[in-house]
């Protein structure tokens, strides 16, 4: 349940697309005070990199911590604590990372390869109950350890010496470079974690840092907290900002007012604001790595009828949905995976465009009526009552109600009831595959990897909300993560085939791909965004203009 819950609850906060703001390469002005104030839409839960799941907390942690790699943009990694990007050996299953020399934690302790071993073993230990433990499964013995069948010390990660970390995988994993750039794979200071035990990461004082900044004045009750430049960070000379204040602003209207009065330098826009502020300097919109879709519950006979599924999809006007209902920058989708996740290794074309099946996301009410009539004849029905479950978030409710209005308008005999449930209840309902016929679902990737989206349709996968099953799809998906895992072009072709199979089969009704819209002060330069990590401030600086 943990992985699914994380995805369903993360959509309100930011997942960047590697977009860098103008002026990144310029020198910082000496005159302006090098401080910035950043909006956070919600309170954050923890600073313990092993335990956090909310994107807001990851945003703070990614500015205060650093792992082997860091995200340069949405699909590119660069060295962090590692000296260089590693080419795996032994049939692409062994990574040997060399750490920079003389690394230090913010308390002055040396940072060594053992800090990664400790952190990763802690994450896979069952009693830790780490929500993101599943991300370690590519590492040798992780599966057995997480199942309680093997000691965590058997995890395939070894500190060869203070500056050499060796990692052994069970099979080639092309996206491993993204994993080691993510929060769960950050190092931990064993001495400090042991000192505070379960209290580690519950406040700024009970946490130690190795990144560009340190966190000050944060507890779980805080509505604001401060980042201070970390003098022990290996690259501190290139960090320009001395102070960053994060301010929780749960009301978009309040955040905009604070931005307009120059009390916030960077805010997230929502709904109508995105359209109203589009012409303002500092406005930017970028893919969030999110797909919203309707999952058909294949336990229901009518949902197993492809003509019924086609009719429902064709009755939904996605252009109107994104432009006039959501109004938050969301875009009409191309398929299961959104843009900026992967590109064709040979041509460089974005996967979403390269693999699209236009009929799967088309709007054609007349054709919808024909498929509906055919499907109803096949089922021997004149009326069909269906229930659409979603949870109590405005964007979800508004989308569900729009789907209800469109489908009932064009599909004769359909009665679609929208059942709005509390978030956890709705997720549980869909996980059990009972009590609903259609479920409004969304998925936000943790890292730019196609498996993240296509595992949602793999037979018997825990996150397969509708229990969809197609042998040809499964074969393509399995090849991509098996025999073709170390061949980039073949793997890409496998996922392309999987997407086209699923979209032609109308496995789900993809509704929109998410966008993040922001306003950033023209004086705050060098800000970057990366997938699942929000705003990154290592290269940011203030100017007078």
Please outline the helices and strands:
Layout: H1 2-9, E1 35-40, H2 55-64, E2 69-71, E3 77-79, E4 94-98, H3 113-124, H4 142-146, E5 157-161, E6 164-168, H5 176-179, H6 190-196, E7 213-216, E8 224-229, E9 243-248, H7 252-260, E10 266-268, H8 272-276, E11 283-296, H9 306-314, H10 318-326, H11 351-354, H12 365-379, E12 384-391, H13 394-410, E13 414-421, H14 423-432, E14 438-444, H15 451-454, H16 471-480, H17 488-504, E15 508-520, E16 524-525, E17 528-530, E18 534-536, E19 541-542
Parallel strand pairs: 1-9, 12-13, 12-14
Antiparallel strand pairs: 2-3, 4-6, 5-6, 7-8, 8-9, 10-15, 11-14, 11-15, 16-19, 17-18
Helix pairs in contact: 9-12, 16-17
Tags for this entry?
single chain, 545 residues, alpha+beta, Dipeptide-binding Protein, domain 1, Dipeptide-binding Protein, domain 3, 2 domains, 6-stranded mixed sheet, 4-stranded mixed sheet, 17 helices, 19 strands, 28% helix, disordered N terminus, protein transport, signal, Peptide ABC transporter substrate-binding protein
């Amino acid at each position: 349940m943990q992985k699914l819950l994380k995805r369903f609850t993360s959509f309100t906060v930011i997942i960047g697309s590697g977009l860098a703001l103008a002026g990144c390469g310029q020198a910082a002005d000496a005159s302006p005070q090098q401080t910035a104030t950043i909006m956070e839409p919600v309170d954050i839960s923890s600073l313990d990199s092993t335990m956090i799941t909310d994107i807001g907390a990851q945003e703070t942690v990614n500015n205060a911590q650093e792992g082997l790699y860091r995200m340069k943009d949405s699909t590119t990694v660069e060295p962090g604590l590692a000296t260089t990007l590693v080419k795996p050996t032994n049939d692409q299953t062994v990574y040997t990372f060399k750490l920079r020399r003389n690394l230090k934690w913010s308390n002055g302790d040396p940072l060594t390869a053992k800090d990664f071993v400790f952190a990763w073993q802690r994450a896979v230990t069952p009693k830790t109950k780490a929500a993101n433990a599943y991300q370690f499964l590519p590492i040798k013995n992780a599966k057995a350890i997480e199942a309680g069948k093997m000691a965590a010390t058997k995890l395939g990660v070894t500190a060869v010496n203070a500056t050499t970390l060796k990692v052994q995988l069970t099979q080639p994993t092309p996206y491993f470079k993204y994993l080691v750039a993510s929060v769960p794979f950050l190092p931990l200071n064993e001495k400090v974690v042991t000192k505070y035990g379960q209290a580690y990461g519950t406040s700024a004082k009970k946490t130690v840092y190795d990144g560009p900044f340190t966190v000050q004045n944060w507890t779980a009750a805080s509505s604001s907290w401060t980042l201070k430049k970390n003098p022990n960070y290996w690259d501190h000379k290139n960090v320009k900002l001395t102070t960053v204040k994060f301010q929780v602003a749960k009301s978009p209207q309040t955040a905009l007012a604070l931005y307009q009065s120059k009390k916030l330098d960077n805010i997230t826009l929502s709904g109508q604001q995105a359209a109203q502020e589009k012409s303002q300097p500092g406005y930017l919109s970028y893919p969030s790595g999110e797909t919203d879709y309707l999952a058909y519950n294949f336990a229901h006979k009518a949902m197993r009828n492809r003509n019924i599924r086609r009719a429902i999809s064709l009755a939904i006007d996605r252009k109107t949905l994104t432009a006039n209902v959501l109004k938050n920058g969301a875009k009409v989708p191309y398929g299961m995976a959104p843009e900026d996740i992967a590109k064709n290794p040979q041509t460089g074309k974005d996967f979403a465009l390269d693999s699209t099946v236009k009929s799967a996301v088309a709007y054609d009410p007349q054709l919808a009526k024909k498929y509906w009539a055919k499907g109803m004849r096949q089922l021997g029905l004149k009326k069909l009552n269906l229930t659409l479950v979603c949870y109590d978030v405005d964007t979800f409710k508004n989308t569900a109600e729009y789907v209800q209005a469109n489908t009932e308008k064009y599909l004769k005999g359909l009665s679609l009831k929208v059942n709005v449930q509390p978030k956890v209840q709705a997720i549980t309902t869909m996980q059990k595959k009972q009590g609903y016929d259609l479920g409004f679902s969304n998925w936000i990737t943790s890292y730019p990897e196609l498996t993240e989206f296509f595992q949602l349709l793999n037979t018997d996968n825990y996150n397969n909300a509708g229990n969809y099953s197609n042998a040809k799809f499964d074969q393509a998906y399995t090849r991509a993560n098996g025999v073709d895992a170390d061949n980039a072009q073949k793997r890409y072709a496998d996922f392309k085939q999987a997407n086209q199979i699923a979209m032609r089969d109308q496995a789900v009704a993809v509704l929109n791909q998410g966008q993040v819209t922001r306003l950033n002060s023209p004086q705050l330069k060098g800000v970057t965004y990366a997938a699942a990590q929000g705003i990154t401030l290592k290269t940011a600086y203030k100017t007078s203009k």
